[in-house]
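INFO worker-7 received task bundle
INFO bundle size: 2
INFO processing item 0
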Amino acid sequence: MRLLHTSDWHLGRSFHRVSLLDAQAAFLDHLVATVREREVDAVLVAGDVYDRAVPPLAAVELFDRALHRLAEVGVPTVMISGNHDSARRLGVGAGLIERAGIHLRTDPAGAGSPVVLSDAHGDVALYGLPYLEPSLVREQLGAARAGHEAVLGAAMDRVRADLAARAPGTRSVVLAHAFVAGGEASDSERDITVGGVAAVPAGVFDGVDYVALGHLHGSQALTERVRYSGSPLAYSFSETDHRKTMWLIDLGADGTIEAAERIDCPVPRALGRIRGRLDDLLADPALARHEEAWVEATLTDPVRPAEPMARLTARFPHTLNLVFEPERTEGAPYASYAQRLRDRTDQQIAEDFVAHVRGGAGPDGAERTVLHGAFADVRVDAAEREVNR
């Protein structure tokens, strides 16, 4: 059976205030085309369909069109909710939609109730485990203790119990949305540590043939049978080096992974990270490859240059993020700012702060006068409030 594994669409998300709806629509076009061209037997969507629990209308419309197109292709789709989704909202109408071959699995209670598909070699049971927030599902799943590993383990116990009652040779696939130990994270995933230790061991999924994971945005194989598809688009500059793909998995007659191929997703615009002094960045011919990319620029000038964004965008018109990390000047103190606060007056602390953020260049005479006046005003105001108490 040929499976197309994807996840983390995050419909409605922007990239540093740039709308990605067109890029997300292009990805869904690519998804449907891949299903047709590669003769896919089932599509697996491992959570975070939307970026927010209450998504914008345009994202809902995009999702609605995607469901209709997947139904028209006639290839079953199994989809779970992730930590960004509202499970209840995503699951509305699941019973009716299932008649069209779109199987939404958003209720933890259904962990042991698979979608059963068949091919020439027999049945394949596909179990959808939506994102499991420990504090909300512990009692429902009968987990022995709180924590991600405990609730996911309890859900997998239901999976294994159902699988054991099926005909020998039934193959099994699990969709889950979790942070599995050994996975490499990026800056764009929402933290799920609330409710217990976030990472769960890959061994919690023992006993099934393939595990289609969602949550981490980089495509990666933790084992031959346990894989993250990653997000189809980059959602932070930490993903600059990611290759955005889907997994095309051929599940053999005995449950072995006969083939695992990465299918590249469309790239709306390359990402570039550049670092250095502003004048150097504007003159460096080696950076020409970033002139049409979305750019994050880290400026290391000891003193913040004038109009840095305007000057950067003259060469790199798609600069989206600007970071300042000034180089330390020769002789600048390397102690931490907290250490340098000790035994300092308010004026000295303020001047030291200015030098700290400027990489050692302290305030000039006019700036010292402004700081002195500000502190004097604060002291007068505080004295007046004390008198009027």
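INFO item 0 finished
INFO processing item 1
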Amino acid sequence: MLTGRKYRLDLTPDQAEFAERIGGVCRSVWNTALEQRRTYRRRDAWIGYHEQARQLAEAKQEFAWLAEVPGHCLQQTLIDLDQACSRHGTWKVRWKSKARTRPSFRFPEGAKIAIERLNRRWARAKLPKLGWVRFRITRPLGGAVRNATVSRDGTHWHVSFLVEDGALTPQRHDHPGSAAGIDRGVAKVVTRSDGIFHHQVFAREREVEHAATLQRRLARTQKGSTRREHAAAKLAKALAKVRRRRADFAAKTAHTLATGFELIVFEALPTKNMTAAVAPKPDPGQQGAFLPNGAASKSGLNRSILDKGWHRIELATRGKARYTGTCVITVNPAYTSQTCNVRTVVDRKSRQSQAVFRCTSCGHTEHADVNAAKNILTAGRAEHARPRPGARAGARKPRNHVGRKANRQATAAQGHATASPELAGIPRP
């Protein structure tokens, strides 16, 4: 199966400068192609990947800054944009900012990437137009390379190889019949239905205060100045520590869950909606004033939810489940924290505090998060045992490999027919 291997690069100053330039050109192509798609949509027309790739090839002959970077990286940028627009819609795809988006580009052809091991700690890879780049090989590749993605995180560059490791998902789990319900919270990051907690503080109070100080320093600097670059680098270094701790916790927790249980049940939590900002309430009695609406406390809750990395834990568990044969499902989270897992009685008064659950009907007392995790497990077992309508054991719906390509060609032809002269080509950023 396909898996990722990420390593830290050791680029020379010239290679780092060229990598920044490649990332900037890919960002420019993304933004220009997105604006082109939106302009076509405003005119009730459509343009797809094939037409934009053709215009990009024409623009490379005119602009030298487009021709000097690897062409496959630019084509992959257009492919990624096309997939994003197909999945989310043209108007919901975001722009790539120079300040907030880290530079990243992908080499899609693994056959053109050569990898050599230098010694026990170092290896090197030959990337198109970048040449031989050294990276710290902290773990073996373990398979054939399909593609490589180069990205910058703070001041360090990394390369991520997509590898075909040849592993297969086992037919049976090592612990058949085992199951666990997972309740994700703020006080305890992960609570299992068997009463075990997985929790970690990713940023200590002193680190939070230091990050706030660095943010204030960054806000007082002038845009485009050298002081601002240094302040942004210090802030990015401080935030990267917390980000690495969060990723490490998610990976370790996912390993424990996937290797220990055959069935894992999560709540289907809409994190994006849960962390949305509160709309201000205008005061009808005073023009330009707003009534208090709890936005300050809601913003604090949003930061706490995003700090715990709920979605990352679920993604890491699904990735690890491929190697253990674990089934990961999600259930509706409604009333799981207000239902007694003994009598299945729903009463909001039973949840007396964050950690205390005392059923008003039968008097059952338990940790509130453990009670919720047991309810999640009960709902997950019922969902897992329910037969799917119209599905047959062992049957799989055949995939249509021709329809998407034919649809792309037809829409590309339509976009070419309705193209306007002023939109031909990729303009200079």
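INFO item 1 finished
INFO post-check item 1: The CA atoms of residues 189 and 394 lie 37 Å apart.
INFO post-check item 1: Residues 179-198+244-385 form one domain.
INFO worker-7 idle
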